[in-house]
Design brief:
single chain, mainly alpha
């Protein structure tokens, strides 16, 4: 974008080309963090256009007649109040943002105010053009309803389980929660008008949160195990949990029927290894590390078997036994 706009600026020698390029860069940065960059850039262009109309009136018909800082504040207050009101409404947040930022950029008088309508109009045309080009690029390059974008968001959601398994344990729970909810926010905004896609992404988000938090708690429990042969790294239950982690990575990176079967088998094997291990402490939840480990494993298994989970589509349907036939009574 910057190369295209910069080339246009150089080719035309437009005095306001620098403003257009800089505003386009700022718009890209401000809109890129929103769920729908195209919509945000277009709304900012609308807000800037409103700011240009109001600013032209104030700059050339109001400011020359006022004297002193109190009157300046009084003249600027209505625009700031309107922009703040629009920015506080999610539906018009981009309009309010464009009005507040770019009215202040082009219409607020400087310490030495120069009343030049030619430069004023050119600068605002450059601002609006830069934003509209950003909106057009967002609609063409990153359309929110493109299939690959949904796949990418879904892949990023599933990848959070891999992050829960392999990330550094310090601060992992809050980081995992923040990253997952950020993806949820993006998916929710992009899926407006696409209820089926939105529902599928939300279902993935819920299973990722359930499995991911259980894995993090399981890792925390293993990190504080007391020094005892029953909790050694070489114990079969510790090895089974590592195998389970690798199977979950494969499952969430490439969901399939075979990977789901392997994941469930690995979880069941880890549960059986934990149950078969003797420990030196009382078998109560507060004193038994293995009971807590087993509870997290059962939670993971329940999440994988949840019929409302998107993983249910990969589950093998169990054959139903035929209904018993009634006995034939002798006539």
């Amino acid at each position: 974008m910057l190369v295209v706009l910069g080339s246009y600026w150089v080719a035309t020698a437009w005095p306001s080309g620098a403003t257009m390029t800089l505003i386009a860069a700022a718009t890209i940065g401000l809109s890129a963090a929103t769920p729908n960059p195209k919509r945000m850039a277009f709304q900012m262009a609308c807000g800037t256009f409103i700011g240009a109309l109001v600013g032209f009136v104030e700059m050339f018909f109001v400011f020359p007649w006022i004297d002193g800082f109190p009157l300046l504040c009084l003249m600027l207050a209505p625009v700031i109040v309107l922009g703040s009101f629009l920015a506080s409404r999610p539906k018009y947040a981009g309009v309010g943002l464009g009005l507040l930022i770019f009215f202040s950029t082009g219409s607020v008088p400087d310490n030495l105010t120069i009343y030049n309508p030619y430069t004023f109009i050119n600068d605002y045309i450059a601002m609006v053009m830069g934003m509209l080009v950003c909106a057009a690029a967002g609609a063409i390059i990153l359309p929110p309803n493109s299939r690959w974008l949904w796949r990418r968001l879904e892949q990023d959601l599933r990848g959070q389980v891999v992050y829960a398994i392999s990330g550094k344990l310090k601060g992992l729970a809050s980081s995992f929660e923040s990253r997952t909810r950020d993806l949820l926010h993006q998916a929710y905004g992009l899926a407006v008008g696409q209820p089926k896609v939105q529902s599928e992404l939300l279902r993935w988000m819920f299973v990722v949160l359930e499995v991911g938090h259980a894995i993090i708690e399981l890792r925390k429990e293993q990190a504080i195990l007391p020094v005892h042969p029953a909790y050694a790294e070489s114990q079969p239950w510790r090895q089974a949990i590592r195998v389970m982690g690798r199977s979950l990575v494969r499952l969430f990176l490439q969901p399939s029927q075979s990977n789901l079967e392997r994941g469930l088998i690995a979880v069941d094997h880890a549960i059986s290894r934990v149950q078969a291990t003797d420990e030196p402490f009382a078998p109560h939840f507060d004193t038994s590390a293995l009971r807590r480990v087993k509870s997290y494993l059962h939670f993971i298994r329940t999440s994988l078997l949840d019929p409302q989970s998107p993983l249910a589509a990969y589950a093998v349907a169990k054959p139903t036994a035929p209904a018993p036939q009634g006995l034939d009574h002798a006539s």
